[in-house]
Amino acid sequence: MEFVIKMPSNLKMFSPGKIGNLTIRNRFIRSATAEGLAKEDGTVSDKLIELFQRLAENQVGLITMGFTYVMENGMATRRQTGIYKDELVPGLKRLVKTVKDHPDTIIFPQLAHAGREIFKELAKTLDVMAPSAIRDQATQVKPREMTQEDIEICIKSFIAGARRAYEAEFDGVQLHVAHGYLLNEFISPHFNHRSDAYGGSLENRFRVIKEILQGIRDEVDKRFPITVKLNTVDFVTEPQLTIEESTVIAKRMVEEGVVAIETSGGAYESMLLGNFSPTRVNIKSKEDEAYFLPQAEIIKKEINVPVILVGGIRSKETVEEVLRVVDFVALSRPLVHEPDLITKWKDNLTSRSGCISCNRCLTEQGDQGLRCVYLEKKQKREKVS
Question: What would you report as the CA-atom Rg of the chain, rounded to the nearest whole angstrom?
């Protein structure tokens, strides 16, 4: 039996918090995680709805849908959820309605485009584009360099994605500017070697994000919350995005109306340099947890909107400690292993997630989509024995 650490009942993690004009019931956010449960064209499926319904039932304050791609060539893996055409809105609206049948639940889609960070087999069938035609050392995928017209279409696609999210009655949106995907590629000198108005200086590299944010503000209700998942450090070879530059970018995002920033880091290539990926393995002790906290603390001191910490958070004790520094915590793999983890923590049934950080939920999705493969195999062994 697990030894459960008894903690006071008035914990900050269970207190409400504000993101923009929204009140979040507690300090827990489901971090965007590629579900692989949509239909092949990105249409919402019943299995996808069931996943989010279970999270809503178990008191997740804000649910962020994983990697909702804004252009048909923008997916990173198969069966991600699409928001690239108007025909997808009815399915998204049905998902939102089902989730909102549970009181106090807030849900955002994560608007994204893969850029060059795409699985190799999928890259054979799509028009892979990026700010610069630089081969990805992890996947060996080489994109074509985006033209001015490509960039304009991309900006309009993110704006249209936000408009569709608004029409589907989501509570807000998150822009994916992390993990080496397209918007991260624009702001990082590692991925962006352009010499035009969208490359070179920090101001130029930020231009795509600025134009997307301004376009969303013009297209939908100005009160519609926009948050960002931001790479604070790329953890790749030089040149790369540094914490100094990402702090400036965070401040500029807030000036453009962003109401919260989720701090992250790493890309496909960073895995080649060791355990520096966005989803690190072997989180076995308290010391291994909250590995992006140093970067989050730096950014928190410079902006006046909530900072959300993601990365290796596994214990109730760690959650309460980091909430002295940041405003919210985001959980990904622990909620794959235990969708009811927050309910368990609130009822003092456990003090630590059972997630072993093996990453198999992400690397072994196949046609079955997001699930805890470790738990699945364990249950099969127990059944046989």
Answer: 20
Cβ atoms 309, 326 nearer than 8 A: yes
| pTM for the whole structure | 0.94
CATH code of residue 331 = 3.20.20.70
In a domain? residue 373 = no
CA distance 385 to 383: 6
Distance from chain centroid for Cα 263: 10
Average pLDDT of the chain, as a whole number? 93
Per-residue confidence (pLDDT) for residue 1, from 0 to 100? 42
Active site residues per annotation: 181
**For 330-340, what is the mean pLDDT?**
95
Sequence-distant (6+) residues with CB within 8 A of 220 are 162, 163, 166
The number of distinct structural domains making up the chain is 1
**Residue pair 183/177 in contact by the 8 Å Cβ criterion:** yes
Domain that holds residue 349: 12-353
The answer to whether 85 and 367 have CB atoms below 8 angstroms apart is no
Backbone angles phi, psi at 63, to 5 degrees: -100, 125
Query: Cβ contacts of residue 188 below 8 Å, gap of 6+?
Result: 180, 205, 231, 234, 240, 241
Cβ neighbours around 281 below 10 Å, total: 15
Of 4 and 29, the one with more pLDDT: 29
Strands 129-130 and 328-331: unpaired
Q: Report yes or no on 362 lying in a domain.
A: no
Cβ within 8 Å of residue 303, ≥6 positions away: 250, 251, 254, 261
Would 65 be classed as within a structural domain?
yes
User: What DSSP character marks residue 70?
Assistant: S
- How far is the C-alpha of 384 from the C-alpha of 380, rounded, in Å? 6
In this structure, are residues 73 and 129 in contact, taking their beta carbons and an 8 Å threshold?
A: yes
DSSP class of 112: E
Burial pattern 316-350, b for ≥16 Cβ within 10 A else e, equals bebbbebbeebbbbbbbbbbbbbbbbbebbbeeeb
Band of residue 374 on the pLDDT scale cut at 50, 70, 90: confident
Q: Examine residue 232 and state whether it is found in any structural domain, yes or no.
A: yes
